[in-house]
Specification:
133 residues; mainly alpha
Length: 133
């Protein structure tokens, strides 16, 4: 019985690890696709870059975009969930699933990939598009 409990506990830890890793990959993909077109280190619209974790935590002219472990205090979520959402200004609005992914990611501390720096993967980047709207 103890072996079964230990095995189940190990499986739950592995599932949480896989889930957190998937959430990280998904959150980073959302930021790269929907935010970095205007908020990378070169453009810094509103003084905000989201290329690194320290950039997001430092924030821009309006304050910190990310508050680790506190999605309700993170301006990033405020801007993508408004009625109507203020961000992203170019490209499609985030889906409810994408917003939930970002909420969960921030709630778990907004971990960052080991590569540390993200790149703009938006459709606008591929077209040479600009921040608009």
């Amino acid at each position: 019985m103890l072996d079964l409990a230990l095995a189940m506990s190990t499986c739950l830890v592995e599932l949480r690890t896989i889930s957190a890793a998937d959430e990280l990959v998904d959150a980073i993909a959302i930021l790269e696709r929907s935010c970095l077109n205007c908020h990378d280190r070169a453009r810094r619209k509103g003084g905000l870059a989201l290329s690194t974790r320290s950039d997001g935590l430092a924030g821009g002219e309006s304050g910190p975009a990310l508050v680790s472990g506190r999605p309700e205090k993170s301006l990033l979520l405020e801007y993508v969930t408004g009625d109507p959402p203020e961000m992203p200004k170019s490209g499609p609005r985030l889906s409810q699933q994408e917003i939930q992914t970002l909420q969960g990611w921030i709630a778990t501390g907004a971990p960052w990939p080991k590569s540390e720096r993200m790149i703009d993967r938006s459709v606008q980047a591929a077209d040479g598009g600009r921040c608009s709207r």
